[in-house]
Structure prediction request, 693 residues.
Amino acid sequence: MTRRTDDRADGPRDANEAAVTRRDFVTAGAAGLGAAALLDSGGAEAQVVAGGGAAIRWDHEFDVVVVGAGCAGLTAAIRARDLGASVLVVEAAFDVGGRMLHSGSFVSLGAGDPVQRRDMRGERDAEGRIQVDPIEDPAELDDSVDLLFTDVTDWSIVDRHGYSPYRYNERDLMRAWAENCPATRQFLLDNYVRFGRINGTHSGGGMSRARGAVCFLMLGDQTDMKAGTVTAEDAGQADPERSSAFAPVQMDNASRVVGPGAFSNGAALARPLEFSAREKGVRFMLNRGFDELVREQPSAGKIVGIKASYTPRRHPETGALLPSYWQNGNVDEQREVVHIRARRGVVLACGGHAGNPEVRSMFHPGMREPMFPTSAIATLGPRVQDASALKAGLKVGANLAGMQQNLILSLTYHVSTRLGTRDAYIPMMPGHPAFGFRGSCGVSVGAAGFEELIAVNQVGKRFFNEVRLIARTGGNRYPGGGIAPHPGIEHKPRDWRNCSHEWLRTTYDYDHGIEAALAINEGSKAPHYYSGPIWAIFDQATVERTGWKLRYPYVADNGYSFKADTLEELAAKIEKGNEFQRVPLAHLGKTVATWNSYVDAGADPEFEREKDGAMHGVATAPFYALSIMIVWHDSYGGLRVDGRQRVIDMQGEVIPGLFAGGEAAGGFDKHGLGKGTVQGFIAGTHAVAETRA
Ligand SMILES: Cc1cc2nc3c(=O)[nH]c(=O)nc-3n(C[C@H](O)[C@H](O)[C@H](O)COP(=O)(O)OP(=O)(O)OC[C@H]3O[C@@H](n4cnc5c(N)ncnc54)[C@H](O)[C@@H]3O)c2cc1C
Prediction:
């Protein structure tokens, strides 16, 4: 199946369309407090709608309203639909998939899930696509709910900077998650998702067993989710410089975990789920940003719906509305503001807060600098990870949980080795409709590339040893992940030796480059004292030595890449061309001259770089500057939820009708997709069980 823009016959068929009713109506009782009055009420919305939201003019009505079409949202929606509910997914972006779509699709579950059991028995997948033998020994796959639960609440595990994330995980949440891992893996398999061999475990997935596998599709003549195939063009394999609308990031060769012809990444998880959701009759309202929850009383009663605004994503050059990959099941709604009633429940699955500098700076004041966005700002738009769930939840009295988990630094914020683009987390190429929002793919220089350049701050001064700037500490991982436990230390669940003094001394090897990058410098001004952008500076000799591709689509004239014949001209171009460069790079010329003298002397008295890598001069015109980005990976912490994903208020009471999952929910240090898919599955299950409003 190839992509079509407006032809229902080519998308997945809607199995139960008649059961899903789109309504444009005014509920009884609206008289006296009409739509206009409500729409004008702004932030006081939840307070105005006393009495079951009866005064609201509901524009649409569904049993379950899911906010966000990422991994938590899609799984919640499909699950609720499977259980007979009419379901609307409200999504701020123009397409479905959230961050899952550009992820690595490494889904870590466990507790004896069906893929672990398959590999343990040495079997292939049901379709016989998997050609390679299991990667893990059967003993590494022999898992149980109890072991998984023990693992993910283990007080004794410390990561490489001495932090112990598992001990802070909420226990009821972890138990429910562990219990639902096997069912969720089966649910994903039942919705056209294919998994390769289990291979290690993701951070947050416990230390005792192998639990993670990537999703794959086979290269074929057609992109067909039922058959599990993708064309070379859609997989991004036909042209090394093109992504596709199907997969914003080119898919990876998965032959090691599947066999020849297999390709993996988030598209192999997101697109099958989306296809299945549409086929089953889930409806999608895209380009629609959720603003607020509607509760019966300001701090009491059931959540009965949401308010959401039109957030169209238009092509940056043509102004045309960007199309979603599939269209069937889309609800065409272009009014500025609509109210959507949820008869049974609202599931908040609209991601985290890492894209909101005001919220994330709770954990790292330096990350208040807005230069640095979260991943996929091009694809998902300015509302990506803007803390929408937290903001709306707090307004109706919700509590928060696990916010301190953001401090597991290696997985939270770090320096990207992709230079010259603001969206430095993912290598999107032209061919995806949102490419224009980033303008360039960026130049992936790898860790070794940092030996070829100097890094300067917004005033043009070096601030750290470049080679160590990108060092990331290890998380708490299954041994197969290759990071921890340290060689020589055998992991035993809940064993004090996992966090003994000796182990802590061995592991505490954190490089503070990122702190130096985000530090106050001479250009930092009141009130926020932003640290400003960071620039990689190098010369023509570097380009010739490395072969870096400094041309479109890797770099572009978009404010993140500059070239000039002199350093003075380079500094002036950066100041004029980058929106976050607020001060002149006054020291650039002197910094480069000093650096060149260090290169001649073979020693860097400021940052001891000679100890860690090569030193190359910056002396041959033309000179170059590429942006260096700090990226904030997952958001940890979010709305407090119980084992049914019900949102809990500050009195410890359930907020009826409100659920949250994925990065919108807190209390669980687990990375990514394993957390989101299971929590969506649980939320969908229990949202349907709510009494009707
Ligand atoms: C490059 C990369 C690779 C990764 N690889 C892996 C991996 O291999 N394995 C793994 O486990 N994890 C991985 N992750 C992490 C994982 O992708 C995310 O943690 C996970 O997808 C988050 O899912 P979510 O549903 O909670 O949120 P999101 O994916 O953020 O989805 C939220 C959705 O809600 C929408 N939204 C936001 N605000 C609103 C609003 N106000 N109204 C309506 N809609 C809104 C967003 O547009 C988005 O579509 C990776 C992340 C990145 C960036």
